[in-house]
Structures are given as structure tokens and as C-alpha cells.
Write a structure and sequence with these properties.
The chain is an alpha/beta fold. It is built from 16 helices and twelve strands. The protein has two domains: 6-160 and 344-355, Glycogen Phosphorylase B (Rossmann fold, 3-Layer(aba) Sandwich); 175-343, 3-Layer(aba) Sandwich (Rossmann fold), CATH 3.40.50.
């Protein structure tokens, strides 16, 4: 990949949609290494044409490019159509003013939430056709993106060490959860306690099935803390899994969003459960690696290749596994967390984005 000198990019200005910890990580790196001016906006993507126009005609802030990210839609058809229209108008404005259009394709094969697949296909088609550069979040996703997006040139924009980003909202585990963990460890000091954190979308279901099965291990080797607003959806689409999670004494449940501070993960947990059925790398992977916790995932998935390629976890066949063997593998101490962090950094991601602003 062609690298562009900092002297060329430091006067460049990039605006990214969404207001999340990932944008904050890239912004901090851009500021620390004087790569250029990186801003992100907190408004709904529906308002992106107005945000872009405001920057284009601002006397204080210039704009060299705009970066699109997630293309999830809404249950509301009218709102989904408005967002599609906003994206089309935004691209038109950017092209008229000869500004760069960038797209970080977090989910290579499909969006996490797609209520109207025809509209989603149209929106993805717009960005495939008009993006000056398309990024994925890991080099292992590049060949998949080249094939599915039919673009020869695909670039990598990775995340980085999440402990380097100070969160003002992160909190410790509730006292009730800490007492639950303390009691288990007092009863069985060798027990492995895993963390599952996320939402009840389809790509996460198999990982929930896996932890339910491990929590029923007769030798009581495993226990889990499950965090996320999953009860309403899960009780409808997978009532059996929901009941198992709800009733199993070796699964602590917090069925709501909870901003668990990343720095305490390795104080309470021995590993992190993360299984995805699509072509993406969940941010949870980076969080686990940042605090040196191995990842337990599912075989025959893209994440299996990730954990094996970088030696940061183990993949399990949900239909054919031995709980004891899983337990023994999780006791390993030779995980390559530091090597993963060397090739996945906020600086590398921000550097790649600013390179994308130069022809």
C-alpha cells in the first residue's frame, strides 16, 4: 500500500459519521501523530447532507473528505428511505465539490441490521460505485471484500488497543455480580469464568448456544456473565436458549446495556466468548486482546480464522467438542496478544484513512 508523507496529509481534514469509541481512537492517533484534522459528528446519518454542506461553506473548518461507516437501517420504512436519500445526496455533494468519499465496510457480506434488503443493496451499491477508497478492518477480510464488492483495491483501517482510550462512562461490575464471581471462585478455584457481551442479533446466537452448553458441564468447569439487552429479542426468536440462560445458576445475567469498563475485564474473567456468523471482526475482539484475555469462538466461522491466524484464542465445534479439552486450551499462557497489537493500531487505522484523502 502506498504511504503518503505526513507533510502532505497534515493539512487535510476528514469528517467521519458516528460518535463512538472507534472514531475517538482514530482521532486521538491523528492528533498525537499530526496526521491531519479528523472530526466526527454526533448527528443521525439522515442529516449528513446538512453536516457536509455546513463544513464545505464554513470559514473556520475545511473539508477534504467524508467517511461513511455502518449501513444498518431502521424498522421504519420512511426513516430507512430518508437515510438512503441522505446518503445519495451526500455523495452527490461530495463529488460536485471534488471531495473524497471513503467507506469503512465493517460488515463485508451483510449489514448487522437490514430490515429492507432491497434498499440496503441499493445503498451498498452506491458506496461500492462512488467510494474513492473502501476499507475493511483486517487484512484477512481483504480477499472477501475484493470478491463481494468487486473492487480490486481494498484497504485496511484497523482498530487498536482499547485501554488507551479513556472512557468517562465505563463502570465496574455491580456488587451483586462481583459477589457471585467471588462465591464461585471460593467454591472452585480452577473454574473458568467467561464474559459474553453484546446484542441478540442473529450472528450472535450460536455463541450463546455454546456458552449455554458449557455452563451445563457436569464437572462445573465453566461459568459465564452475560451482559446486553437480549431478553426481549431472545425470548421471541430462541425461547429455549433464553430459558437456559435465565435458569442456569452458572450464568449471571444482566439483560440490559451496561458500559463495563474495559480495564476491569481481566480482574473478573478468564476468557471472552465471541462468535459471529458474518464476515466481520467485532470490536469485542480488540477489547479482549487489549486486556490479554483469550477468545472462545465457533469453528467454521471467519472469527475462527482470526483467532488461529493471530493466536489469540480457540475455536470450538458446537456439535462436537470435549469440555475438558476446551478447559485445558484456555489455560494456555502462550497467546500472541502483543503481536496482534503490533499490527492493529489506532495509528495504522488513522494513517490509512488520511492516505485515502490523497489521489
Amino acid at each position: 500500500m502506498r504511504k503518503v508523507n505526513n507533510l502532505v496529509t497534515k493539512c487535510k481534514s476528514l469528517l467521519i459519521e458516528d460518535n463512538d469509541i472507534k472514531n475517538l481512537g482514530w482521532k486521538m492517533a491523528a492528533d498525537d501523530y499530526h496526521l491531519g484534522k479528523l472530526d466526527y459528528h454526533k448527528y443521525s446519518p439522515i442529516f449528513s447532507p446538512f453536516v457536509i454542506a455546513n463544513r464545505l461553506f464554513s470559514t473556520k473548518n475545511k473539508l477534504d473528505g467524508y467517511c461513511f461507516r455502518y449501513l444498518n437501517d431502521y424498522p421504519s420504512l420512511s426513516k430507512t428511505l430518508l437515510r438512503a436519500l441522505a446518503e445519495a445526496i451526500s455523495i452527490l455533494i461530495l463529488k460536485m465539490f471534488r471531495k473524497r468519499v471513503l467507506w469503512i465496510c465493517h460488515n463485508v457480506d451483510a449489514e448487522t441490521e437490514s430490515n429492507y434488503q432491497v434498499i440496503t443493496k441499493f445503498r451498498r451499491g452506491l458506496l461500492k460505485r462512488f467510494s474513492d477508497r473502501i476499507f475493511v478492518t483486517d487484512k484477512l477480510l481483504v480477499p472477501h471484500a475484493q470478491s463481494l464488492l468487486r473492487r480490486k483495491e481494498i484497504y485496511v483501517c484497523s482498530f487498536g488497543d482499547t485501554t488507551k482510550i479513556i472512557s468517562e462512562t465505563g463502570v465496574d461490575l455491580p456488587d451483586k455480580a462481583k459477589q457471585w464471581i467471588f462465591t464461585l471462585r471460593k467454591t472452585n478455584s480452577t473454574m473458568k469464568i467467561g464474559l459474553w457481551i453484546g446484542s441478540a442479533n442473529k450472528k450472535n446466537l450460536d455463541s450463546l448456544r455454546l456458552l449455554v452448553n458449557l455452563a451445563k458441564d457436569q464437572n462445573k468447569r465453566f461459568a459465564f456473565v452475560v451482559i446486553g439487552p437480549i431478553s426481549k429479542v431472545l425470548s421471541k426468536i430462541e425461547p429455549d436458549i433464553y430459558k437456559e440462560i435465565k435458569d442456569n445458576p452458572y450464568i449471571y445475567k444482566h439483560f440490559d446495556y451496561f458500559p463495563l469498563e474495559i480495564s476491569v475485564w481481566n480482574c473478573y474473567f478468564d476468557f471472552v466468548v465471541k462468535g459471529l456468523s458474518d464476515l466481520s471482526i467485532g470490536f469485542t475482539i480488540y477489547q479482549a486482546v487489549s486486556v490479554k484475555l483469550p477468545i472462545l469462538t465457533l469453528s467454521n466461522s471467519f472469527i475462527e480464522r482470526v483467532v488461529e491466524e493471530y493466536n489469540i484464542g480457540v475455536a470450538v465445534d458446537i456439535d462436537n467438542y470435549n469440555p475438558y479439552e476446551v478447559f485445558k486450551v484456555l489455560e494456555r499462557k502462550d497467546w500472541a496478544f502483543e503481536n496482534f497489537s503490533k499490527v492493529h493500531s489506532w495509528y495504522g487505522g488513522a494513517r490509512s484513512l488520511f492516505d485515502g484523502l490523497v489521489d
